[in-house]
Amino acid sequence: MTYGAANLNDDGTGAKSTLASTVYHQLRDDLLGGVLETESKLRVEWVVSKYGAGASPVREALNRLASEGLLGRHDQRGFFIMPVSAAELEELTRTRCWLEERALRESIAHRTAEWEEQLVLALHRLGRASRLSPQNLASLNPDWEKLHRTFHRALISACRSHWLVGFCDQLSDHAYRYRQMANDRQSMERDDFAEHRLITECALDGNADGAVQALVDHYELTAAMCMERFRQGEDAKVTSSAPGQRARR
Known about the structure:
Elements: H1 13-32, E1 41-42, H2 44-51, H3 55-67, E2 71-74, E3 78-81, H4 86-109, H5 113-128, H6 142-155, H7 162-181, H8 185-188, H9 192-204, H10 208-240, H11 243-247
């Protein structure tokens, strides 16, 4: 007889593992979605209260997120949310372009009919989805985000290295965090489908150089929009701290 994960052990370790996984996914979604303030401390007691789990599964989830680079950890001082910065975004984008260039070239070199079909289908589904949320036209559609992730995963899926795909996935998570922070009307109005279509057409034609250039341009445009939001944020801080502004408060 087969039992669920929560029923595997009489000592409750299966249930604890299930709770830890639940907390991990909920907290991870909040971290990537920008729900939690960057650089703030994450006390175990606060996470226990917010996510409704015991201290042991919470610590397991926090340690897992720290290993992925989404949380920082000070010895004897607990966890904190990793800060965001223009410098880190620049490094992240550069590294992501390096890795995905290799993954994309390998996928094109070893492409199969199945890979081509999956890529065309992923592009088709992405094009049919609305980027804006039907419930809130000022925010992104979560379903579109899933299809967007599926497209980029399909693009490099034939590279023959699950290690490389895994590294690209991890960088994609961190890039998503920045994209959520830079979410505004300007970024929503870009013709992102045309960008994805160009990448696809080059890849299907076996034009590795063209596909790589289109992909790099796609990522660098996103990064540039994020950088602009950083600049606007810094300008706002300078304005609010100016003597004239302080005098009017």
